[in-house]
Automatic annotation (TrEMBL):
<protein>
    <submittedName>
        <fullName>Leucine zipper protein 2</fullName>
    </submittedName>
</protein>
<dbReference type="InterPro" id="IPR026718">
    <property type="entry name" value="Luzp2"/>
</dbReference>
<keyword id="KW-0175">Coiled coil</keyword>
<feature type="coiled-coil region">
    <location>
        <begin position="3"/>
        <end position="125"/>
    </location>
</feature>
Length: 136
C-alpha cells in the first residue's frame, strides 16, 4: 500500500509537472508575442520619430525657401520703386524743359511780332520820308 501511495503521488507530481510545463510553454509563447508586439511598437515609434524629423526638416526648408523668396520679391520691389522714381524724375525734368522751351517760343514769337511792327513802322516812315524827298 505504501508503494501504491508513492506511485499515486508520483503520478500526481508528474501530472502537476506536465501542467506546469504546459503553463510555462503557454506563458513563454505569450511572452514571445508580447516581445514581438513590443518590438513592433518600438519600430513604429522609431518610424514615427523619423517621420516627425523629416516633417520638421521639410518645414524648416520651406521656411528658408519662403524667406529667400520674400527677400527676392523685396529686392525686385525696391528695384521697381527706384526705377519708377528715376522715371518720374525724368518726366518732371522733361516737363520743366518743355515749359521753359514753350516760354522761349512765346517770347520769340512776341519779339518777332514786335520786330514786324517796327519794320512796318519803319517802312511807313521810309515811304513818308520818300514822298517828302520827292516833293522837295
Amino acid at each position: 500500500q505504501g508503494y501504491e501511495e508513492l506511485e499515486r503521488q508520483l503520478k500526481e507530481v508528474f501530472k502537476e509537472r506536465s501542467n506546469i510545463l504546459r503553463q510555462l510553454s503557454k506563458t513563454s509563447k505569450e511572452l514571445e508575442g508580447i516581445k514581438v508586439n513590443l518590438q513592433s511598437l518600438k519600430n513604429d515609434e522609431a518610424s514615427a520619430k523619423s517621420d516627425v524629423q523629416k516633417l520638421l526638416e521639410l518645414g524648416q526648408k520651406q521656411r528658408e525657401e519662403m524667406k529667400s523668396l520674400q527677400e527676392a520679391f523685396q529686392k525686385q520691389l525696391n528695384e521697381a520703386t527706384e526705377k519708377a522714381e528715376k522715371q518720374q524724375a525724368t518726366i518732371n525734368f522733361l516737363k520743366t524743359e518743355m515749359e521753359r522751351k514753350s516760354k522761349m517760343i512765346r517770347d520769340l514769337q512776341n519779339e518777332n511780332k514786335s520786330l514786324k511792327n517796327k519794320l512796318l513802322s519803319g517802312n511807313k516812315l521810309c515811304g513818308i520820308h520818300a514822298e517828302e524827298v520827292s516833293k522837295v
